[in-house]
Amino acid sequence: MLELKDLSRRYGDTVALDNLSLVVREGDVVGFLGPNGAGKTTAMRAVLGIVTPDQGSLTWKGRPLDLATRLRFGYMPEERGLYSTMVIEEQLVYLARLHGMGKQAATDSSRHWLEVLGVAERSQQRLDGLSLGNQQRVQMAAALVHSPELLVLDEPFSGLDPMGIEALGEILTDQARQGVAVVFSSHQLDLVEGLCERVVIVNNGRDVVQGSVQELTSSNKLLSVAVEGDATGLWARDLTGVEQRDLDHGKVRLLLHDDVTSDDVLDVARRAGRVQHFTFERKRLSEVFRDAVTR
Amino acid sequence: MTRLQAIRLIAAREVRERTRSRVFRLGTFMTVLIVVAAVVFPAIGDRTEGLKAYSVGVVSPVTPEVTRAISQLGPQLGAEVLVRTVPTVEEGEVALRTKGLDLLVVADRELVIRQALDPTLTNSTSQLTAAVSEVTQLYAGLGEAGLTAARAEEALKRPALSLRGLEPAAPRDSRGAAAASSGMILLFVFLTLYGAFILNGVIEEKTSRVVEILLSCVRPNELLAGKVLGIAIVGTIQGAVLTVATLGARAATPNSPSSLTTEVLGYTLLWFIIGFGIYSWLYACAGALVSRSEDAQSLVFPLQLPLVASYVVGLVSAVNGPNPALTAMSFFPLTAPMTMLSRMSAGQVPLWEVLVSIGLCLITTYLVMRLAITVFAGGILRSGQRVKLRDAWRHPG
Question: Which of residues 101-140 of A touch B (CB under 8 A)?
């Protein structure tokens, strides 16, 4: 289990991390969410030892992180980086060996991942001869090539086409099934919702929300109501203590404040006409995110 | 994985990628060509010089003694002088025009050449005419004084005066000066070239962001040490190739008067390794502080100043003889590689001075290495504007 506890880091007057804590368990796929500049990249760099926090602790399986432990981590930085003029397979072998693999094992693993990611036929080319999407695949192979126990991926889906996104999603799920702990950042919240068991939302360097996607999106406060003959949801305009979220084919989505109950809403709806649809709905992850960062 | 294994892997990648590049192969090939040419061409030139012969025609009346005296001017002129009798002045002039003759002696009255001489210049023809004129006039004068040509020839057969110098000969000679210059030129090129390799290598890793992945599995000092070691090995390989090429060229032309001797190349290789030890770390510092090659120029300029100053002082000393500035600079670590090489190549430096200079360079290398590793760790992950040295020093990572 990866545990970050009360991490803080400043750059001059800028606070990058402010007592950030999070946990990633083996077999978990964790979405690491936050607006730009929230501290996600700094936190990931701290896990990989690229940034030293001013305070706080980082542990893997209960032990403080050191270089030997980090050799078992796979990393994909936000600003993609490999040697543009180096032959792809040699590059992967080099990185695998720097992570402690033997030459033959590194070669075999490089070929395997290039095959899985669909760029095997380009393995003897220079990286700069590939399209950006394929370079992204090679970058992913670089994170996976040494069979890491923890994958830390900064925006791994950006730049990929829908096929690439699907393929990468399957790889991450498969890795988690094999016991690898996976944490990745993304602004594609629908994707995160479909892929992750847990999310951590950070804002201004702090973890503001974390938990399972199931917990965070379930709600007894979000109602979906349809009244016959009122496709525009006019009946709900005069409701107090209620926030009207959106309208979908005559169904009004309403977020109830603490002082309002579903019965109050049902009464008003009945007075407006025959109630055709009345049910509690799950929040979308994007709503959870928006609520978290605008608090 | 141990630190040494990491450094070895990084160095091996540098060696493989650099030696594989077209720039390196072409550069090595061209340098070998230049070095071989520098050894072989003077040898060919020297042989041509040895075979040089002047053809002198004489129009009677000229005595056999004068003819013999003219033909014996060869050693004095560093050439062979062939004398033949020409029946008439007109025939002699035709031979001059068709380059059958270099000089025509008309009795003891006149010397005729193809093209009039510029009196302000000295060249081989002017030396020939001066020597022939002197001999002819001498015999004419002695004849007027009453000596027969035979008696005059007898009287002139005296050994040359012995020559005694009040002080021993200066150690500098033209060969030593040339040796100092050629070694310095090579070292200047090598230090600048391989410094640029380090600089561009660091900037490449920084701008491509591959450094983030590297620093997640190796320490900054291992990354930098591997890079410096790898590029130093590449430089040494190129130096070794040049040395072998020089040895081959010298074996093929054992009498070559070229200043580019194996000894000079050996000194150059030694001071390349020592000089690279200092400059590589400084270039790495510069690379870590910038994000673009264009921004690096302003940082590289101060690093090149000591090399340029060394080159200028070394060159002046090679031409005008040793001077105190050269001696002083040969103990200052940033200028020592080139200036001490210059002194060693000219053969004018005691061993203890060389050892002291090397010792000071090694101490400086250690200090510069410590500085570079700290600055590298502080600057390598910062992109955008140029990082101030002070900031990189204060915030290493």
Answer: none
